[in-house]
Amino acid sequence: MPEHDEAGRGDNWGMDFTATIIFIIAAFALGGVVVMSRDSLPPRIKRGLAIVSIALIAFAFFSHCL
After folding, report:
1. Separation CA 58–CA 42 (nearest Å)
2. Does the reported pTM lie above 0.70?
3. Burial 2-18 (b: 16+ CB within 10 A, else e)
4. DSSP string covering 3-65
5. For residues 38 and 33, what is the distance between their CA atoms, to the nearest angstrom?
6. How far is CA 43 from CA 32, 49, 55, 57, in A?
7. What is the chain's alpha carbon radius of gyration, rounded to the nearest angstrom?
8. 29 has which bridge partners?
């Protein structure tokens, strides 16, 4: 017999989609900040932030598959 959450939906895996949405928005916001401020950032910091932004955005796209 499947477990039910408070709203009566079955098979609740405990995923909090609000946190996922906040993460996706934050990842894209960081990517936007890096793109908009690319002229004022030192190259070493720009490279690191770009790599972190790409990783977070990729994870945001594929996090629903996990």
Report:
1. 24
2. no
3. eeeeeeeeeeeeeeeee
4. -B-TTS-B------HHHHHHHHHHHHHHHHHHHHTTTTS-HHHHHHHHHHHHHHHHHHHHGGG
5. 8
6. 17, 10, 18, 21
7. 17
8. none
Tokens coding 7: 């709203």
| Alpha carbon distance, N-terminus to C-terminus of the chain | 24
Would you say the C-alpha torsion 34, 36, 39, 40 has a positive or negative sign? negative
Structure tokens at 37: 């401020």
Q: Whole-angstrom Cα distance, residue 34 to residue 41? A: 8
Written as tens digits, the pLDDT of the chain (66 aa) is: 455 555 555 555 555 678 788 888 888 898 888 889 888 989 888 889 889 888 888 888 787 666
